[in-house]
Amino acid sequence: MKMIIVSGRSGSGKTTCLHLLEDLEYYCVDNIPASLLPALAKRLSDEKLHLTRVAVSIDARNISDDLRKFPQILESLRADGVDSQIIFLDADDNILIKRFSETRRKHPLSNNQLGLLEAVAYEKELLEPIAGLADLSINTSAFSIHQLRDIVKGRVAGTEKGMALQFQSFGFKNGVPVDADMVYDVRCLPNPHWIEKLRPLTGLDQPVVDYLEDQGEVQDMFNDIRNYLTRWLPTFQSNNRRYITVSIGCTGGQHRSVFLCEKLGKHFQGCGYNVQVRHKELV
Fold first, then answer.
1. Is the pLDDT of residue 161 over 70?
2. Which of 124, 224, 274, 281 has the fewest CB atoms nearer than 10 Å to its CB?
């Protein structure tokens, strides 16, 4: 049985994720007590039910003692032969607060003692045992519902074909993506920004591609990243890593990082990996 455990703070998109998995024909259960996960897996694996794919949402409304013991619960699941994965969704505090304010929803942890800001912080603390074990972490701050659905669908579908590998370009001036598993800094490479005719273009445009292809340092960087990933991705995969996000950053996330993500994506797609390429600053 394959079980996807969806968790994250309130307002981060868990319901959207669970609905998507239901559309993908997963049997979905919302916020079952975490301690009952092994029993649920055993019941649903009954041959008469024919259920091989299950998705379960676990959030801060869960029994607090179960949340603290989640690492042991997960270990028990895997010991029973359940192919379990964790998708953890989150967003920046100010984004979560804005989402609650706009929808006028009450945060599930807010009460007479805890205001919205305190509830958001406390929820992060409660869910830390799950967040630390996540196979895939997604920060949804900049995503619409449709973008989140597309990303989750691509990553989940990718694991059915093997490891899902995402190359993500970004600009350091806007901060390092929190969902990155590996980060490469390519700000040392020749920058098309300083060539007036290339400045308004991106690494997707042929004049920029041609310029960067002619730079020996750029090719050396590509070769080094490619060789590292070629050497180590199989090891990550053999250790049950199903999702890897490789983030490549330049100053603005417009030229060099975009070019390298596209080039690496094409290479590893040709090697049989399920590849997604995302350009954070070009969205």
1. no
2. 224
**What tokens does 66 get?**
């179960």
- C-alpha to C-alpha distance for 262 and 173, rounded to whole angstroms: 21
**Digit-coded pLDDT (tens) for 10-33:** 999 999 999 999 988 899 999 889
The answer to whether the CB of 269 falls within 8 A of the CB of 275 is yes
CA distance 88 to 34: 15
The CA distances from residue 33 to 61, 62, 73, in Å, are: 9, 6, 11
Alpha-helix residue ranges (DSSP H) falling in the chain:
14-23, 37-44, 64-68, 70-79, 93-103, 116-131, 145-159, 206-213, 216-238, 256-270
Residue type, 33: P
**Token duo for residue 138:** 């997604």
Under 8 Å CB-to-CB from 204, ≥6 apart: which residues?
258, 262, 279, 282
Instruction: Return the SS3 of 279.
Output: strand
For the sheet containing 53-58, what is the strand order?
27-30, 53-58, 2-8, 83-90, 136-139
Number of Cβ within 10 Å of residue 231's Cβ equals 9
Task: State the distance between the two ends of the chain, measured CA to CA, in whole angstroms.
Answer: 36
